[in-house]
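G., before I forget:
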Amino acid sequence: MIPNPRIESLVGIGSKWLEATGPFSEIVLSSRVRLARNLSNFPFVHRARVKDLKEIITRCKSAAEATSHLEGGFYIDVKRLLPVDLQFLVERHLISLEMAGDGKSRGLIVGQGEVLSLMINEEDHIRLQAFASGLQLERAYELASDLDDALESRLEYAFSEKWGFLTACPTNTGTGLRGSVLIHLPGLVLTKDIDKVLRGVTQVGLAVRGFYGEGSEVEGNFFQVSNQTTLGKSEEDIISGLNKVAKQIIEYERNAREMLVASARLEVEDKIWRAFGILTNARTLTSDEIINLCSAVRLGVGLGVMRSISTKDLNELLVLTQPAHLQKVYDAEMEPQERDVKRAEYVRNKLS
Amino acid sequence: MIPNPRIESLVGIGSKWLEATGPFSEIVLSSRVRLARNLSNFPFVHRARVKDLKEIITRCKSAAEATSHLEGGFYIDVKRLLPVDLQFLVERHLISLEMAGDGKSRGLIVGQGEVLSLMINEEDHIRLQAFASGLQLERAYELASDLDDALESRLEYAFSEKWGFLTACPTNTGTGLRGSVLIHLPGLVLTKDIDKVLRGVTQVGLAVRGFYGEGSEVEGNFFQVSNQTTLGKSEEDIISGLNKVAKQIIEYERNAREMLVASARLEVEDKIWRAFGILTNARTLTSDEIINLCSAVRLGVGLGVMRSISTKDLNELLVLTQPAHLQKVYDAEMEPQERDVKRAEYVRNKLS
């Protein structure tokens, strides 16, 4: 296996949706909408035979290539990727951990700027993803829905009038839609109101996860809020419900930040600047540590305390300093300790 | 009481002996020799009456003014000092904590660059002090001894053929000499050999104390090593004995540093740079913290890891960021929390 040139083209570059150009970017990193779809007359992925999987890829790929939505993008044969490239795609949120695991026939189509992407033969035949910067769930849904319509005109989806879109796991049946918002809540963590707020979020039927989705730990005050329910509601209702809650959380976070500035400005600024001092001077940094330090500095940028650095830089650092990204940038297989050294070097170069 | 103009002339300036120009300056901050002397026919200070104390000051002052050694210096009436100025002089090692405490008639003569100074009516009638940069005990002794000779030709010292110089406390009787070396041993602390080395030091009859002498805590890996015995040995033997031990400690410290560089270069460099990052970015810094951070950065300068900063700067920071110094520099009475903020500001200005 040789390095995939398509993947090489992403190395060292941040995804477009991390650019911090969207609304509420000081608090929301990105909005994502994912649609799960399956082709009728084919078994679900976990029961499909090799021949089926190959045929599904062929059909989905040619349908996707016929649309204008993914123009300028590229196709990747996931089965033929090196482990480091698989991990690289996981770090970029382009494939899921599960998909990286086994050697099944799977495909990935990545659109320009990684705004739109299509996983083929993940849990479902099609997992269509759209990202947008900041809080732009409607925009992400619009992008996803447009591509979905274009594909639907070329593919026969497994769809039931009673249940809606049929999916491999019943938790996705119906709309097959999962909207999620990656949100940075250091203020609520510092004021210790975070548990109360997150309890409220889960009580209205939403899920809270860490930076890397299901099963990932919450780190550095980054939270992923998404809908649990995909059935019995329209897509528009799901999106607007999630959007409403996201706006409430933003409001709480803003209040928490105001309170902190009013009551403990010095301590907060000190914390922010110390994090910046360590980030720009350390000679070795673990993944966990960088997320926590970026979190503090990101708060500093949001509060206007720190002006020499941008939210975009910090968003990108979160992704570009992950293990596989570092190994791709430095073009070397590295032990964790070596990576920590290179990570610190990378951050210093980026921020100085 | 108005601010003493003599003291104002020292504000914001480091003592000459902190300049890091002497031998072994990367490890030894300074060498100090102190001689305790008393006038015959006067009671010791703790039993002297006001009239006696005044007469002692008059005699010592005129004797000192007649010598060339203290030319360009100045006299301070300690009793008439503001508390902040007393503390300022303690921080500069020019008077002792005890001397600052009560309202007795006491005087202080400070020579140029604070290399030589004379406390009058401290525990003894005369406490003569000489400082030198780095490990220069002989030089400090020579300076002290020359001034002592000049004073002795004009004053009648309390001296016994059998016991030597008589002093208020018998632990100083004989030579009245206390030599001390302020030494920075981060290497031995990191290799955990420090206790063994310090045990060896005390076993040969020397004392180990913190940065501010007797009763002060050891902080930031700075240790003060001094002779305990003043009786039954010649001045030269005391000085050369202390010098020999100091050189041994330096040797141990150098070995420890070499070992650290060989076995844990990355961890040590990381520690050093993080300390630098915090020192130059924090918005509030306590006294204790600054000593510990300066200690790490000073090691970095000694190891050649850190080149943008000098040992002199760090030596001076240790003194110039003490509470009274800060209040003098910013010309304001400050609560501890305010001082911590100003301290951080002062360090940033100094190091950027």
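Chain A has one domain: 5-254. The mean pLDDT of chain A is 92.

More on Monday.
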